[in-house]
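To close the chapter, one final illustration. This time we ask the reader to focus less on the individual chains and more on the assembly as a whole: which components sit near each other, and how the overall shape emerges from the parts.
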Amino acid sequence: MPYFDAASAAPLHPVARQALMASLDEGWADPGRLYREGRRARLLLDAAREAAAEVVGCRADELVFTGSGTGAVHSGIAGALAGRRRTGPHLIVSAVEHSSVLHAAEVHRDGGGSVTEVAVERTGAVRPSGYAEALRPDTALACLQSANHEVGTVQPVAEVAEVCRAAGVPLLVDAAQSLGWGPVEGGWSLLAASAHKWGGPSGVGLLVVRKGVRFAPQGPRDERESGRAAGFENLPAIVAAAASLRAVRAEAAEQAVRLRELTERIRARVPGLVPDVEVVGDPERRLPGIVTFSCLYVDGETVLHELDRAGFSVSSGSSCTSSTLTPSHVLRAMGVLSEGNVRVSLPSDTREEDVERFLTVLPEVVAGVREKLGAPASPPPAPAEDRTETLVIDAVGRRCPIPVIELAKAIGTVPVGATIRVLADDEAARLDIPAWCEMRNQEYSGEEPAPQGTAYLIRRTH
Amino acid sequence: MPYFDAASAAPLHPVARQALMASLDEGWADPGRLYREGRRARLLLDAAREAAAEVVGCRADELVFTGSGTGAVHSGIAGALAGRRRTGPHLIVSAVEHSSVLHAAEVHRDGGGSVTEVAVERTGAVRPSGYAEALRPDTALACLQSANHEVGTVQPVAEVAEVCRAAGVPLLVDAAQSLGWGPVEGGWSLLAASAHKWGGPSGVGLLVVRKGVRFAPQGPRDERESGRAAGFENLPAIVAAAASLRAVRAEAAEQAVRLRELTERIRARVPGLVPDVEVVGDPERRLPGIVTFSCLYVDGETVLHELDRAGFSVSSGSSCTSSTLTPSHVLRAMGVLSEGNVRVSLPSDTREEDVERFLTVLPEVVAGVREKLGAPASPPPAPAEDRTETLVIDAVGRRCPIPVIELAKAIGTVPVGATIRVLADDEAARLDIPAWCEMRNQEYSGEEPAPQGTAYLIRRTH
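The assembled structure is written out below.
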């Protein structure tokens, strides 16, 4: 039963399990105590910190362990903003950051701070010039992920760090997706990461604050973790996290080649196997294990469900999945199709035959969903004559992908030059109708408010 | 090698270990995902929540898991204060709360809130009337531990909850020390606890917020744990925590009898075995496994060190231990001797013969330390004649227990009625000199500022 959602959480690495077992016996006591059980725990904690720091490429006294990657991001952002309160209340983030970063930005905004979101290209990458333009005299902190969690695009961290450095602004890097693959290059100031992304246990994050970076931890503090992460250390899990980080790094070069070959296979073959698919994310500058694509005329939740039934666990940035009714902010910021979105993220033990089987199953699954939804099976018929008229499709109250399916069905029924006005109130339509036009080479003429929801205007061009 | 510091951290309960092992395989995935690994994780999480809620005596949807007991206390206090912001900014805590509560109170005070610390009796217990007097129209929240972590005294939670209920003020109970022993009685509103105190793994706390209690979580939030604890759930550890809570509860009645007998033995025999000892904490209303006593004329750190060499791991609220130079705030609030303080907290597998060996070793250890420090070995000689004069002892710059040792040596050299003026700048003297007077039936006449430090005045009465 192949699990293809390693970007959410990876199963425990064998080395992590072994380290966890060993330290349950040796590392349960309070490392702050002076008796032998405490000293033994302290030794384990110190060794884990040294090991993690070496892999990150920082000093051991710059690194603290937190209760989660999210906790590391929240504490890092709050502490860095407070440390530079005198400079000003301005925070810069990219539009495709992990929700933990965006939630922290929201809290900062609610507290009276200002936030600039740097836009991304269609590949999902920021441009360093986007950060340069966003920087202001009152900028306290900038944040950028090392690589995107939904589409795998690697960000130009070193270049952005240089831009920030020149302006005297610290850069916090959310390295959750990439730390297992390699160190974060460039002159960053703070770094956050999460152990369960690299095969470590859950319950452990890490926060690095470079010496010289102004940092004022927020909230109640205690004497643990240099006053930067309160509460009893999650020691056996910390030991396991450090051990597995070292282990996955040792295997990283070899694994990267192997996984990149497998994801490249998916990238290359899905568009031929499944009609009307958009593969998203940067084709070159990307993480080895992640590939993301969107399929027209299907909804993400049903595809996920059918793939699950066929034995494949993947995730989706489509609306209608889990509890959310809007497409992922990442796909939205990229301006790509969100309909039928599928993220495949391969764990390191993925077998070639499972990827092949996935490539066999996927077209059947998508075809099945499309059939059930009554999606247009073939391209629209040849145009009649070139006339100007308007057809209205009322898709108010209908969820994605129905508005796009109705549009695709109708386009062949109007003459070239005619306009179709799609009325819809599903947020996904705002993303998916223009994306459909781009994929189909039809003209998207914009949107306007309608009595209910929004009217999207499409002109048939061929 | 007997470990007698269970109140700091307990070794993993066998049931916890078993549950942890099993859920490492079953519960590593994201419980928010819809595929089978996610659903399996969700089932484990739901079952753990149900189990923990049943043991606590609350509804499952009132309980969330946090990254530590400290995290639960911090989030609970911040959320409850914010939820009742309109009522006012007043917070009530007891003077003997765990540092996590006091740190949260400090942050509240720094942010413009007001805090009342309710005093305790010499036993360490608060009086419900103390809370009644502290309540104000602008009181947003009151906090009380279920039992004290340093001396084991059980607090009158049900009575205090009633006082608070009558005033319409929610009571947050820090149940870290007692939850393994039994449910917290009474109409409390919020409850926090920590798994590694009951033999669960570290990295898990729990926060209960009763339905109807106004609560506004602070800081960045996500969709996990009802928006009350952000970050990926530490699932295997949560499963283990719930399993061990249920297991220790099932054994609690039997264990309580056994441990109470062993701590009673220490309480009863230490004063006979070691001269000049004060056993502290309530003799009746106390946790089964904790006994605390203070020994005149020794310093806590050396006693801990010597006991560790003899194979016993205990802790101390004396100054000069670990990084602190002041006696524990608990002993200070109780007004008891802090010198040579020793807390013995027995884990459930403590053997009778280890307690007996402790009772053999302790007198030797204390005698050895006293000899090295030149402590007075016998009571002071008979008085000469009744005269009024003053002897000055300059102990400025000398750390505890030297000021008390010098006082004890000098008392026999002055006539009855004479005054000794001890000059000292060690904070512990403020606690230990009056405590010594009480133990020795000498008159403590108070303190006054001195050019360096403080002058403590003692009148010889017999």
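The domain at 14-248 of chain A is CATH 3.40.640.10 (Aspartate Aminotransferase; domain 2). Chain A has twelve helices and 14 strands. With these observations in hand, you are ready for the problems at the end of the chapter.
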